[in-house]
Amino acid sequence: SIRGEPVELMLDSGLSEGLVTPALAARLALRRSGRSQGEGAGGVSDVNLVEVPDLVLGCGVHLGRPLTAVVSDFPQEKLDQALPLSGMLGYQALQEYDVDLDFPRARFRLWPAGQGAAMARKAGLRDVVAVLLPVFGVLCVRVMAPGSGGAAAALGIVDTGASFSAINA
C-alpha cells in the first residue's frame, strides 16, 4: 500500500527506480521531485520523478524511507483486469534486504541484511554470490560453463521483470 491505499506493483529487480502510472501518481497526489532521462526498451525519454512515501508491502514490511519513482505509461497496467498493476517496484526498494525469490509459490521474502544466507541454508538452499554492475548498480551473477575452471563465461543480470532470458553470443 502507498499512504494506506492498496496498490498492485510488479517486482522488477532489473529496474533501478520504481515506476508508477500517471493515474496512480495523480490519484495519490504524489509529490513531484524532479525530472530525469529514462532509458528503456523504447529508447531515451524525459520523465517526471515523484516521491513515493509510506510504502508498505503486503507482508507488513514498511520500507521506512520514501522511494523515487518514474511516472510513465505502463502497458502491463491493462493486461489482466483481475490484476490491475499500477507500476513496478525496482531494486531501490530491496537493496537494504536479503531477498528470497520463490517462483513456484509466487512470493518473495525479505530478510534483514545479512540474515538471508543463514535462513536459506537452514531451508536447504544454496547461496548465489552476486556482484553489482558498475554504473547501474544492477545485481548480476557470474555464469560459468562446465569445465571452465570457475572462469565466468558471461555475466547474467537478475531481472525479475524480464519476460525471457537472453545471452549475447
UniProtKB/TrEMBL annotation:
Q: Which InterPro entries match?
A: Aspartic_peptidase_AS, Peptidase_aspartic_dom_sf
Q: Name one Pfam family in it.
A: Asp_protease_2
GO MF terms held by the record: aspartic-type endopeptidase activity
Tell me the domain of life: Eukaryota
Q: Cross-referenced PROSITE patterns, in alphabetical order?
A: ASP_PROTEASE
Query: What is an annotated GO biological process for this record, any one?
Result: proteolysis
What are the boundaries of the signal sequence?
A: none
Q: What Gene3D superfamilies has UniProt attached to this entry?
A: Acid Proteases
Q: What is this protein called?
A: Peptidase A2 domain-containing protein
Lineage of producing organism = Eukaryota, Sar, Alveolata, Dinophyceae, Peridiniales
